[in-house]
Amino acid sequence: MHRVGPWNRVIPQTLLRNSPRPAAGVGVKAGKLPRGTVTPSFLLDPDDDRLMAGTMLAHTKQYRVEGCIGEGGMGWVYKAWDPVLERPVALKVMKPEVPESERDRFRREAIWGARFCHPAIARVFDLVGVPGQGISWFVMEYLPGRDLGTLIERARKRDTAIPLRLVIDVFRQILSALQYSHDCKVVHRDVKPENMFVTRDPNTRFVTSKLLDFGVALDRSQPPTSPERHLVGDPRYIAPEQTEHGRRIDGRADVYAAGMSLYEALCNRHPFADLHAFHGQGLLQAQRERKPAPVSTYLSDEISSPLACGLDVVVAKAIAKDPDQRFESARDMLEALLDVAS
After folding, report:
1. 3-class SS at 224?
2. Which range of residues forms the domain containing residue 201?
3. CA-to-CA distance for 314 and 307, rounded, in angstroms?
4. Do 95 and 109 form a contact (C-beta atoms < 8 A)?
5. What are phi and psi of 136, to 5 degrees?
6. Directed axis angle between helix 251-267 and helix 330-341, to 10°?
7. Would residue 190 show up in a list of annotated catalytic residues for this protein?
8. Alpha-carbon separation of residue 167 from 57, 116, 208, 284, 323 (angstroms)
9. First-to-final CA distance of the chain
10. 134 and 151, same structural domain?
11. 109 CB contacts (<8 Å, ≥6 apart)?
């Protein structure tokens, strides 16, 4: 049992047990992670030891790969060691077969991760492209733990519930991160349990949450571009307006997806469980038209009636079909959730 943040003092260790650590080099093939030599170059004013404005500093760092810890549709994730700063890092390496049309998503994920500065958004330290080799990878903070989707699936298989205080604490941090990104004029557009990582602060050991993958984020500070040709987001959590061609998208789309994710975390079942395994038109139609059963239908009997009713209200408002009927912001949803849980 471990202490966590203010809303979840204690959680079962089994929910956050790390995966078995692979042996060094597991999943690492020759050529995937190029190694370079340290080659700093300096352009100095001959009469002054200080660097001149406009000087370009080149420095190729090396990372010692310890093993492959994950794989997604676009790439592999490796745990590695940074010998200069003496810390573990994660390396995300893009698969060479990723089509050219999707490669920009990989780059954007790294850029937003590096640009943002929020404790609940995963930090990216560097982005590397190897000319002529088709290799791209970025360095990010190493996060031991599990994504919320995995925790939900584990609890579902065991017919148990994720502790309510843990759920509240996770969404307290995720909603704060969403509000931050919205304040930066960025809409995530792919909020879901798999993009909410539950880890531990390496110093305090408190459980912390991280919002991942801004690869399909919408930058609302830029002039509108032509409408997307393809559906953006996961059909299981996507807001109704994202399913309709040409609709204006703002932060309330992320509020909807957060509400769908909160429903699933509270109930151990997706709001449209009968369609959850399918990504077709039936699921998109359900997002536009179907109203899920109240959260209280599936909550544990141990949760008090007033608390269950309060959660019903928060989730129902978050996943309203009409954006104007939802919480105006992630901050409003966060305040309502904390008020119910207090």
Report:
1. coil
2. 146-341
3. 11
4. no
5. -135, 140
6. 30
7. yes
8. 45, 24, 11, 26, 24
9. 22
10. no
11. 124, 138, 213, 214, 215
CA distance 239 to 319: 8
- Domain containing 33 — which CATH number? 3.30.200.20
Question: Which DSSP symbol is given to 244?
Answer: S
Domains identified in the chain, total number: 2
Asked if the structure places residue 13 within a domain, the reply is no
Amino acid letter for position 100? E
Whether 163 and 67 map to the same domain: the answer is: no
Structure tokens at 159: 């017919």
Name the active-site residue from 190, 213, 234, 254.
190
Encoded amino acid at 338, one letter: L
Q: What is the dihedral of CA 5, 10, 11, 17, to 10 degrees?
A: 80
pLDDT tens per residue across all 342 residues of the chain: 433 344 443 444 444 444 334 333 333 343 344 443 333 444 445 566 677 888 777 777 889 999 999 888 888 999 999 999 999 999 999 998 888 878 888 888 999 999 999 999 999 999 988 666 667 899 999 999 999 999 999 999 999 999 999 999 999 999 999 999 999 999 999 999 999 999 988 788 889 999 999 999 999 988 776 566 678 889 999 999 999 887 889 999 999 999 999 999 999 999 998 886 666 778 899 999 999 999 999 998 889 999 999 999 999 999 999 999 999 999 999 999 999 998
Do the bridges between strand 207-211 and strand 186-187 make them parallel or antiparallel, or are there none, so unpaired? unpaired
Given 106, 141, 176, which residue is the final one in a domain?
141
Nearest C-alpha neighbor of 80 from the set 32, 39, 114, 117: 32
Q: Are residues 202 and 63 in the same domain?
A: no
**Do 176 and 114 share a structural domain?**
no
Q: What's the rounded Cα separation, in Å, for the pair 187 and 140?
A: 21
Query: What is residue 58's DSSP assignment?
Result: B
Based on the fold, state whether residues 114 and 190 are members of the same structural domain: no
Q: Which residues of 180-194 are buried (b: 16+ CB within 10 A; e: fewer)?
A: bbbebebbbbbbbbb
Is 205 found in the same domain as 92?
Answer: no
DSSP 173-221: HHHHHHHHHHHTTEE-S---GGGEEEEE-TTT--EEEEE---TT-EETT
